[in-house]
Amino acid sequence: MSIKTLCTEISTTFLVVDFCSLSSANLKNVMYNLPGQTNLLEINQPLACAATLPASTRRLFKMAVAVDQDSSSTTSPSSVSTLDHLSVHDAPQIHALVVEVAIAMASGVNPEPVASGLGGAYFLRAKNGDRIAVAKPVDEEPLAFNNPKGYNGRMLGQPGMKGSIRIGETGLREPAAYLLDHGGFAGVPPTALVEFSHVQFNSNSSGSNSSPLFKIASLQRFVDHDSDAGDMGPSTFSVADVHHIGILDIRLMNLDRHAGNILVRKQNESYGRGDAELVPIDHGYCLPESLDDPYFEWLHWPQASIPFSETAVEYVSCLNPYKDAELLRTELPSIRESSIRVLVICTIFLKQATAYGLSLADMGEIMTREINGGEENWSALENLCMIAKARLNNGLSDDNVIKSDHVEEDIDVSHEDRLNQESDAPRVFHNSPAKGKPSKFPRFSLMIV
């Protein structure tokens, strides 16, 4: 399959997408030049995601508990702490998680600050001392105003650690990753979006207000583990686990899949080849608002170069990016449309690449930018999208793109030639499609995203 043919497929598939809006540079300009306070949030106001949810959704599940003050006890000094589940998604695993945390709060167990990481996070324990969850308030993210570790100073809605993800919006992406991990394929722990109130949460504002602070936070089931992927070589990891996590990272364009957010659990007393179970966590830097430069720790692991199993191919073939888009709009209505477009694009890319027999390593290289001579070059995927955009700018309809034998005259051929010269990754598309099932989703031109 030639690059030109691939670009034709992309341009017809993405017919209604404005790829100019996917430029990281353009996004940063928009974010730094917001008119007035349209997208910035006042420090003492609830996050917009709570305000945009209908009342029936915000109060779908609420657990408010009164904690008795006792000067001789070690329980929370607050008079009232609350926990609201801010999503219509009330799967049994999520319901159980929220109930357990609510019971723990009712028993007076304080949130325990997590020392590691740049953002504010809290372990939540059961009364017997077992860790049951990790909470991450959105106003304590790195660079947010209530960050407890000195990485603060910006308002919610401004560019964050990753320019294509705004401060205060990583918390939305944590439950999004769980929602999109259909059937627990990659093993993302149950994750919810909640509203907390507890005096233990950090506040950098001056004053001595002792009333509980209301905060939006992601709440994720704590997973007992022995280490993380940074503590050992990948030889102990199973091919299936690496592929499953990689497929999720490709779909969500994970900008921060480092070894520290892949937990490792023993399946036997001693580690053998493929004996370790991998659990992916920390998905706050997924679903950027633009095509960006992802980081995939697994990119050069040997497992990433092994072809997908029939199980993985079947899973990918059944993915429907448009249903996933509607799922996010319904469950997490504050996820921005630009992030949903990135999900759709990356899922379609994953499906097409899998159909043509590409390995996980091939896909990762196509999505990753290269640095040559100190300069960062666009990834092959970004270049392909720009070629597709050029086709759209030339007014090619779905029909005449397919029927025309001379569409190359309407394309920036030099740009396409440069893509062939500079990137080896897309050359795998020159091969014939691998035998497999066709993509199970309608053409993009029939959808409005």
TrEMBL record:
PROSITE patterns: PI3_4_KINASE_3 (PS50290). The keyword Kinase applies. Its EC number is 2.7.1.67. Residues 416-427 have a biased composition (Basic and acidic residues). It is an enzyme of class 2 (transferase). The keyword Transferase applies. InterPro entries: P4KG1-8, PI3/4_kinase_cat_dom. It comes from the Eukaryota. Pfam families: PI3_PI4_kinase. Residues 416-436 are annotated as: Disordered. Residues 108-400 form the PI3K/PI4K catalytic domain. Keywords: ATP-binding, Kinase, Nucleotide-binding, Transferase. One of its GO terms (molecular function) is ATP binding. Belongs to the PI3/PI4-kinase family. Type II PI4K subfamily. This is 1-phosphatidylinositol 4-kinase. The lineage of its organism: Eukaryota, Viridiplantae, Streptophyta, Embryophyta, Tracheophyta.
